Amino acid sequence: MAPSYISASEKDKITIPIIVNNDRNIILQDLRLNATTNAKGIELTFDNDYIPILKGFEKATRNLTIITNKYSSPGLYDITVTVRVGYPSFEDSIKIVIGLGTLADNKTIRVKFAQDLFKENPECLELNDMLLQAKKALEEKKVDKARSLVEASIQMCRDLVTSRGKEIKIPATRNYRLLFKILIPTIIILSLVIIYRSYKAGIRKGKFSRFGKAITVTEKEEPSKKMGFSNPFSKLFKRKKNKSKTKNRDAWTRNK
Fold first, then answer.
1. Residue 52: which CATH number?
2. What confidence category does residue 172 fall into, taking pLDDT thresholds of 50, 70 and 90?
3. Which residues does 139 contact at the CB level (< 8 Å), separation at least 6?
């Protein structure tokens, strides 16, 4: 098991895991790994190319280091990784496509997604070194290399989990910034609607005037008071009216 595609530039160095998985209930002995390529100027070395024994349904991981030099020509090339088993005698191989000096596409580099994927699927944590290399490549402005390492780690994680008969757990994507942009205006609008409706209800029940001032209305109050204001001359007119009634009553008494 290995990534299907990686990208590199001149005078570059990439280390990728090669996972040898025994998916049968038999014991494999004396396993040897070998890597070849049809590209010039590329060196391929294993940290350890020998696996003495691999029991049924077990796996072993070996790291393959790919080194390119300044004489490497741009283009797409094949790397063939072969495992030869001593007993029982058989061999198997996989191909890895390596792009030298190729342009990156417009896909997003999914480092965060890969990290979350590994957390959801602990079987993939052994691939974390590829993400560390991707982060370093980003710091060095090697976008192609970073993207290929991240995508390769995601693909290998899926293959690793499914090879064990499990279903891979995809992390949920969360965009809190977009959520706040939608949620905050919605809360403000709902609050304004509630305040406006409460205000209109208060006017209908007589608790508020149209100018927003609280008033109390009783049936015995004059119309002027019901409207929210009082007439300062009302008491003066009442006094004058009472005095005129008193004068008329005295004049009638004298005439009588």
1. 2.60.40.10
2. low
3. none
Q: How far is CA 3 from CA 79, 95, 115, 150, 175, in A?
A: 11, 9, 17, 10, 29
pLDDT digits (tens, 9 = 90+) for 70-92: 767 777 888 999 999 999 999 99
Q: Please give the order of strands across the beta sheet that includes 13-21.
A: 13-21, 59-68, 42-46
Question: Which domain-ending residue is among 116, 143, 162?
Answer: 162
Q: Which domain holds residue 65?
A: 5-162
**Tokens found for residue 225:** 């008071």
User: Could you read off the pLDDT of 8-52 as tens digits, one per residue?
Assistant: 877 888 898 999 989 889 999 999 999 999 888 889 999 999 999
Residues 164, 155: Cα–Cα separation, whole Å:
15
The rounded distance, in Å, linking the Cα atoms of 210 and 226 is 13
What's the full length of the chain, in residues? 256
